[in-house]
Amino acid sequence: MRIVSFLPAGTEIVHALGAGAELVGRSHECDYPPEVVALPVVSRPALDLGGASPAAIDRAVAARMKTGGSMYLIDEKLLRELRPEVILTQNLCRVCAPSGNELSRAVRDLSTRPDILFLTPGDIAGIENNIIETGIAIGRPDAAEALVDSTRRSLARVRAAVAGAVPRRVVFLEWTEPLFCGGHWVPEMVALAGGHDPLGRPGEDSVRITWDDVEAAEPEVIVVSPCGYRLDAAAELARGLPRVRGARTYAVDANAYYARPGPRAAEGVELLGHLFHPELVSWVHSHRPWLEIAG
Predict the structure, then answer these.
(1) Distance from chain centroid for Cα 43
(2) Count of alpha carbons within 13 angstroms of residue 234, beta-carbon side
(3) How far is CA 92 from CA 105, 204, 213, 267, in A?
(4) Domains observed in the chain
(5) Which of 77, 161, 254, 283 has the maximum number of C-beta atoms within 10 A of its C-beta?
(6) What share of the chain in percent tops pLDDT 90?
(7) 68 with 102: CB under 8 angstroms?
């Protein structure tokens, strides 16, 4: 099997199913597990936004999408050389990875038409379905079933631990300038962890909100998880936000747990459970993917 992944979550799923050696190409954002960075890069962003502020990124992306321009450049020559049998991508967000139209153009001249799997979940059940679908597509259905079972057990442990607790009022921010609420699978993750986000949009796109909205939600916890950002960068952005009296503000590693709907989503729920109810949900891992921002 020769697999090309245009999607970081897809790359993580393939590795979690034990098929990492069958990956032959990746997107520029696929960086976990670390060994994938040695793979050839088949897609890059059409805009050079390195070092840009969240506000500048938002303006540039909005302008590009308004004109109908692609957000990604696909190396079609390299794709032909890699001869993929399976391609993993998504149709959920034009900003996250190449979409259907871009890939259709890229694969039309390939000598053999690969199977294209669109991983486009709207909730945790969708993430589980993506794992099963990927397992079937790459010939590892049993590994996929086992991974989903393990994920469900992890989620059940957190849910049971917080079952008797009063839900924490939460605001989950997927972007900081402008502010965006949590959408798709994130509000469900918050709820499983013993929280309630009145601004969240379960199963739907995240949308712009204002700081007035945040204050009106009267949060006990604010989670700053800007899409595409690691912990250090997320913490820097969180320090620039106003404070809400009585609310604890945490920056988290968005890429690891919340922006990528893959195998680490269950650990992301565990992390939220620990932040919301530390007396009920322990964090037993050696790494510490969050930082509390002093008020």
Answers:
(1) 18
(2) 29
(3) 18, 10, 26, 22
(4) 3-120 (3.40.50.1980), 164-293 (3.40.50.1980)
(5) 254
(6) 79
(7) no
Q: In Å, how far are 2, 151, 219, 228, 244 from 213, measured between CA atoms?
A: 47, 33, 10, 23, 11
pLDDT at residue 63 tops 90: no
Q: Bridge partners of 189?
A: none
| pLDDT exceeds 80 at position 94 | no
Residue 199: DSSP 8-state: T
CB 90 within 8 A of CB 117: no
CA distance linking residue 148 with residue 251, whole number of Å = 28
Tens-digit pLDDT profile for residues 166-182: 999 999 999 999 999 99
53 token code pair:
């502020």
**131-165 exposure pattern, b = at least 16 Cβ within 10 A, e = fewer:** bebbbebbebeebbebbbeebeeebeebeebbeee
What is the per-residue pLDDT across 211-258, written as a single tens digit (0 to 9) for each? 999 999 999 999 999 998 999 999 999 999 999 999 999 999 999 999
pTM over 0.90: yes
Confidence grade of residue 99 (pLDDT, cut at 50, 70, 90): low
